Please model this.
Amino acid sequence: MNNSNAASINPISAYTLIFVSSLLAAVILYGLLSSTGIWESKGIQLGGAAAGFVIFFLLANRVFHSLQKLHTEQRNNNNQQRIDALEQEINQLKAEESPNIECPSNFETVVSKDFGLAFSKPREWKNTPEQIVGLYLRPSVKDIPTSEFGGNITVTVTPLEQIPNMPSNLADISPDALKAHFITTQQFYSATDISWESTYLSNRRAMNTSYKYNHHLNPETVVFVEGTVVLDETSQKLFIFALYEDQTKAQESKQLFRQLLSTV
Model:
């Protein structure tokens, strides 16, 4: 029996065991073995089996309390050792999170354990709540010029609580709120041939869009974009899937992109 189990013995069970053991010892010694004895305390005097029972009961009770006290002390010592170890681990983690980096005035330290990177950024510059799940590039072909636009699929996620002006009641989230991400991009690139479609993806509200724009570095290149915004009410997150592809290769990439969405 380990210390934690011994220290948590039910007192009723313990006293029942002590009572039965004392009674059994008295029966054996004073009944079968014909032992004799007298117990006296504060004017009370007992003899024979009754005296033996009381003596065994008191001795067993004292041993039980001694063992229980010992087990409690050992358990407290073990708990204190765990606390000390956790405090040491916390201090070590704090030290790792706060590396010795020179931080200019009005800057703050940023630490990324995942990438093993630490740096300082302007304090007033805020991090976007949007997190990249993946950026997937179309395979390049050897005879294609390197200046050609490289098709890609991006997947991002944003917690709803970090999106400004997002209603607390998810049923009140409007189609325009689902469009907001792509509307900003469409306006920035002066997009054309814009289309929207409200839909569902795996029983989750979604918004599809497609549009085109001329590449800013090579205006002759037309970039085709197809995207889907998915509202996941269970996790309270907004997932955004987007395909960016050269218009001349859009047909094949669209099929692959839609196959990807069908697996979500």
Observations:
- Strands lie at 38-41, 44-47, 107-112, 117-122, 131-137, 152-159, 192-201, 204-214, 222-232, 237-246.
- Confidence is low (pLDDT under 50) at residues 1-7.
- The longest helix spans residues 49-97.
- The chain has five helices and ten strands.
